[in-house]
Amino acid sequence: MRFLDFERPIAELEGKIAELRHLGDADGMNIVEEVARLQQKVERQLQTTYARLTPWQKTHVARHPDRPHCLRYIKRLIDDFTPLAGDRSFAEDEAIVGGLGRFRGQAVVVIGQEKGHDTESRVKHNFGMPRPEGYRKAQRLMRMAERFGLPVLTLVDTAGAFPGKGAEERGQAEAIARSTETCLDLRVPLIACVIGEGGSGGAIALAAGNVVLMLEHAIYSVISPEGCASILWRSGDKAQDAAEALRLTAQDLETLGVIEEIVKEPLGGAHRDPEAAMDAVGEAFERHLAELMPLSGDVIRARRRARFLAIGRQGLS
Amino acid sequence: MNWLSDYVRPKFRNLVGSTREVPDNLWHKCSTCGHMIFHKELDKARRVCTQCGHHMRLPVKHRLAMLFDDGSYDRIPLPKVPADPLKFRDVKRYTDRLKDAQSRTAESDGLIVAHGPIEGRTAVVAAFDFDFMGGSMGMAVGEGFVAAAEKAVELDAPLIAIPSSGGARMQEGILSLMQMARVTVAVDMVKDAGLPYIVVLTDPTTGGVTASLAMLGDIAIAEPGAIIGFAGARVIEQTIHEKLPKGFQRSEYLLEHGMVDMVVPRDTLKGTLARVIRLLTVPVEPVAQTTLPTVVTPDHVEGHRETEPTGPVDDSEDPHPDVEVLPPSDGDKAARRKTAPERERRTGDSAAASTAADQPPPEA
């Protein structure tokens, strides 16, 4: 387990527990009571820490390397997953994974950004930063879903679209714009869940859904706190202030009427109990899907568009 | 204090001050070729360098005056939106930045929505005002764009978007990001109604504005030399650790890479827009003589940029404006250098009417 800076007290306690266990094994001492006491302390500490994470701390939790990423969700929630590759024009972009599968009996198309979990997979998936091909593949899969009447589930987790020379030349902006447009145009349900980082245009290209869910400690923002700080404060080390100002937490976004629901994370964040976090997302998907599936295609499309037009018109003072 | 400082000095200042009234911005220096241009001449040339053809940023109201017939148009006010919903504050309060921009531009936010005739046909124009916080897109701009789309549908008129924007307005956080989806819904309202949606990309078009309304046009027209892109060049250089090629993210570069339909100089922009709109919305035009239909044959010989319509032209209808044929090559510079009078001469009689209408006084 990798610990974040603000988790140091927890790390120390857990270190002690591990030490005790090690000693206990060696000396046959009875350490059960002491371990239980420390465990309780850890839990209390986690509770208080995670109940009042600052936006900047949440940014770190959202980017935690051990946090479950897209492919783990797919593995856990989707049966018969059949990955599909390529945009049919240029390349396969593994920063966006997607394909067919079955979610609790229902055939679906699932799409998401994958960040990777070790050096090799991170490079393979370009750290979850898609190129235009990724967004074009996403459009292709969404259109196919529509053709076969399958709902679309998206898992959003990206620092942003890749800023590269080739990406620009091949129309990164166009690919994002069309992907957003495709999301908004579909006559099948689209449910998006921000599972980690919702980084700007690169995120909304997959997140213009009928329902947008967000994990409790995920973030979703127009720009990264670091980027915002360097532009508005002209100093990268004001990222903490920028994170506060941007109001990028799930709790803020719910208040602003930008998301429908916050999916609760296990104590201490999704990385402490990935299975519980992923199942909670599955439960929310299932519930919202049940509501959307009986609706006609036209209603589904009209409601999604109305949803976005309504943002900012109500509920803000 | 005393007679000297209270009385004499101000008097002197008044006397000397009179010479300072000469504004120091009478002459503009072209950032590309260094040519000095007198401000009146520059305005007359629609802020295009008379020496090298460099297109400087054109204030949004000049542009509207240039596009609409006789420079006259009606405006729709921007719908009211909650100001500063995030209570955003960086080194400065967002509300203060807003107030500054409002008093500087005398506008409520960074988008002007106007409608009026362009060569006789009604169009709705949503033009970004770069002078208002870098043309950034927040709730007011997004809502204004939605209003523009609704107006286009109501008037059964095409919508022309003219972005000039650094991207999303950070000070509105996630709500500015949401505008990317909202303006996309607006674009599709126009498309669903079967109306043309045309984008004129001007300097600069970047970030979330490019990645939404700017790249969704049925037709995408770019002004020469405009910066158009998603990520900033500096960010890209820092990410990939290499120097970017010359002309990267410029209009001509985008044309070469298939991202825009054409690069059109400012003095033929109106004619081009009007022609495209006619072609998209008037499927059949009456022909004066029955022998041959009016055929516009663009001469594809490199270097030839304008071609007169050949064949008979119906006098009663609007004549075809001059046709732009833009070779996607760099050798285009010389052609762009041609001054406006030269162009007028070359457009021939049939296009004279439209060319004249094409040149309203820049000051409206």
From TrEMBL, chain A:
GO molecular-function term, one example from the UniProt record: carboxyl- or carbamoyltransferase activity
Primary localization class, coarse: cytoplasm
Pathway stated in the Swiss-Prot or TrEMBL entry: Lipid metabolism; malonyl-CoA biosynthesis; malonyl-CoA from acetyl-CoA: step 1/1
InterPro entries for this protein: Acetyl_CoA_COase_a_su (IPR001095), ClpP/crotonase-like_dom_sf (IPR029045), COA_CT_C (IPR011763)
Localization, UniProt: Cytoplasm
Family statement: Belongs to the AccA family.
Quaternary state and interactors: Acetyl-CoA carboxylase is a heterohexamer composed of biotin carboxyl carrier protein (AccB), biotin carboxylase (AccC) and two subunits each of ACCase subunit alpha (AccA) and ACCase subunit beta (AccD).
Protein name: Acetyl-coenzyme A carboxylase carboxyl transferase subunit alpha
Protein source organism: Roseospira navarrensis
Automatic annotation (TrEMBL), chain B:
The keyword Cytoplasm is annotated on this UniProt entry: yes
Keywords annotated in UniProt: ATP-binding, Cytoplasm, Fatty acid biosynthesis, Fatty acid metabolism, Ligase, Lipid biosynthesis, Lipid metabolism, Metal-binding, Nucleotide-binding, Transferase, Zinc, Zinc-finger
Compositionally biased tracts (Basic and acidic residues): 299-308, 330-348
GO-annotated molecular function: acetyl-CoA carboxylase activity; ATP binding; carboxyl- or carbamoyltransferase activity; zinc ion binding
InterPro entries listed in its UniProt record: AcCoA_carboxyl_beta, Acetyl_CoA_COase_Trfase_b_su, ClpP/crotonase-like_dom_sf, COA_CT_N, Znf-ACC
Cofactors named for this entry: Zn(2+)
EC number: 2.1.3.15
Cofactor note: Binds 1 zinc ion per subunit.
Biased composition (Low complexity): 349-358
First and last residues of each zinc finger (C4-type): 30-52
Localization per Swiss-Prot or TrEMBL: Cytoplasm
Keyword NAD in annotation: no
Family statement drawn from the similarity comment of this UniProt entry: Belongs to the AccD/PCCB family.
NCBIfam families: accD
Protein name (Swiss-Prot/TrEMBL): Acetyl-coenzyme A carboxylase carboxyl transferase subunit beta
Species annotation: Roseospira navarrensis
